[in-house]
Amino acid sequence: MHAWMGHTWFIGRKYVVSPLLVKPRRVRSKGRVYIQHIAYIPRSLAETLYQYAGKNVDEELPVITLIAPAKWYHVLNWKNEPLHAFKNLPREIALELEALGLSPSQSHVPLTVLAEAEELKELGIDPSKPLTLRELKEKIIEKSIRH
Question: What is the separation of C-alpha 133 from the centre of its chain, rounded to a whole number of angstroms?
């Protein structure tokens, strides 16, 4: 797996995490212009997916994707960026990259904890923001002390 690819566990299953590039392309058909969007998958990513599936690269491979627009830049190759570049990212973005296994010094495999949005809101947590286990523990303790 290349340095710019990571992995995470979600519901007990290993997922490859990799930035992709989506490019618009104008296509003419019957006198009209349409825009197609093409996602480019790096060869190393395709090889990793085939390896996980235990299939040959000449076979068709259905995949599940969880895709979100990137809110950061230069995520493809942290080797060319000084470590302080990662540390200066906004906290939310740095946590997202760590959760996806894309931080420059990934020493652990992140796990996903499932929770309902209402449960998090009851603890005073915004469910749309990344959250660490330490923060979750603090909120639970805080709530138990109040009651």
Answer: 18
